Amino acid sequence: MAGINTAISLTDRITGTLTKVANTQERVARTAERMNQNTRRIAPAQIEMGNSAQMAGGKVANMWNKFKGYFIALFAIQAVTRALRALFGASDTFSSIQARLNLINDGSQTTAQLNERFTEPRKGREPSTLLWLHQLPS
Predict the structure, then answer these.
(1) Cβ(98)–Cβ(112) under 8 Å?
(2) pLDDT of 77-110, one tens digit each?
(3) Strand, helix or coil at 36?
(4) Given 3-state DSSP classes, what are the helix, strand and coil percentages for the chain, each rounded to the nearest 5?
(5) How far apart (Å, rounded) are the C-alpha atoms in residues 6 and 9?
(6) Sign of CA dihedral 8, 12, 15, 17
(7) pLDDT tens per residue across span 67-77
(8) What are 35-64's pLDDT values in tens digits?
C-alpha cells in the first residue's frame, strides 16, 4: 500500500499536466467563442452580400428583357417600314399605270374598261407587250 508521501508525489506530478490540459481547454473555449462572435458579425454581411447579388441578378435579367424588347421592336419597325414601302410602291405603280392608260385612252371607253381589256388576257397566260399594243383601240 502506498503511503501518503507517494500519493502526494503522484499528485504533484499530475497537477502540472492537468493544469496545462485545463488551460488548453480554456483557450479552445475562448477561441470558439470568438469565432462564434465573428460569425454572428459576418452573418449580416453575408446576407447583405447575397441580397446584393440577387438584386444584381434581377437587374441583369431586367436589362436583358428590355434588350429583347428593344430588339423585337426594332424588327417590328423594320417589317412595318418594308410593308409601307411595298404599299407605297404598289400605289405608285397603280398610279403610273392609270396615268398611262389615261394617256392611251381616246375617249371611246373608260379607263377601267381599258384596264380590263389589258388585264383580261393576262389571267390565263402572259402575253407579250406587242400583243397589248395590237389590242389598243385605233
Answers:
(1) no
(2) 999 999 988 888 888 888 888 888 888 878 788 8
(3) helix
(4) 85, 0, 15
(5) 5
(6) negative
(7) 888 889 999 99
(8) 888 888 887 877 888 888 888 888 888 888
Task: Note the pLDDT of residue 21.
Answer: 82
The length of the chain in residues reads 138
First to last CA, the chain: 154
Query: Identity (one letter) of the amino acid at 1?
Result: M
| Residue 124, CA distances (Å) to 2, 127, 135 in order | 133, 9, 16
Residues near 137 by beta carbon (within 8 Å), at least 6 away in sequence: 106, 108, 109
Tell me what the mean pLDDT of segment 111-132 comes to.
Answer: 64
Contact 131, 121 (CB under 8 A): yes
Cell numbers found for residue 68: 429583347
- 21 CB-near residues (< 8 Å, 6+ apart): none
Q: Angle, to 10 degrees, between the axis of helix 4-104 and the axis of helix 111-119?
A: 110
CB 87 within 8 A of CB 101: no
- pLDDT of amino acid 46: 79
The rounded distance, in Å, linking the Cα atoms of 10 and 83 is 106
